[in-house]
Amino acid sequence: MEVAGARGYIYPDKELDREEGQVIEEVKANSQGVIPDPDGWLEEELERNILLTTVDALINWGQRSSLWTVICFPACCAFEFIAANGPRFDLSRFGMEILRASPRQADLMITAGTLTWKMAPNVRRIYNQMAEPKWVIAMGACAISGGIFASSYNVVPGYNHIIPVDVYVPGCPPRPEALIHGIRMLQNKIAKKSILKKG
Amino acid sequence: MLTNYGYIGLYLIVAVLFTLFMVIIPIVLRFLKIVPSHPNPIKNATFECGMETIGKTWVQFNFHYYFYALIFLALDVLVVFLYPWAVSLRALGISGFVMILILIFIVFVGYLYAWRKKVLEWK
Known about the structure:
The structure holds two protein chains of two kinds. By secondary structure, chain A is mainly α.
């Protein structure tokens, strides 16, 4: 995944528009292919010893029990996430009641909703700012494939064109139960992680 | 007496060790490759989060704010002095009253000066 460095400041409106258009076109041209899901390490067999297993168990327990979500919800699936985070479905049971406004403090990006190419550079920027280890849940039909807007010229056909996705949660929008199931799946995935695997 | 100083010394040692330990933990974890490290230019930037600013960010504040701040400071200090005086008004007597009058006069001259310079008018 290529990363754009810092740009100089531009003042006139026309040049700002041109610059933004260039960035968007660049991202669009470079993201036609799908980024493969980071799950290759799941099948890797490891020689484990008891010390390593214990360290892994401890670290994975810590990481999966405190998944903090970055506030990056471009569209309407965010409401289902809000419902899931509310008292009825109560995401804080899984240690993730905290939403971080700063991606530097977040582990998990729940990509809720339609992504336009105009927004794509910003989503990638937020993903790049997140600290390691970071995880992505693609929530809803639009996040998986572009949904009903997939044929539009300006909709990203799936977040996996922009960022690597760990778990896909189908639905339009998915119910909070579905989202919680996806989160449980992500937690199971984190539980399989080892410090020896390149995760 | 000496034991008390001993406790303070112990506290100091524990504090320094704890601080050093906290600084060294991430370095050791990084060295053991337990902490994953995938740096990229955006993550390493000092800019914390969100979008880069678009357009001009060198905003100029109106110079009037400065005048207002100065007048506020003068009157603020006046109030700070008036309160303790008003609390012990009877004890200080007439001499305290005269001193406060002098203080108010000094601040009032500055206020009048600002008024004459049309600081209080918003243009």
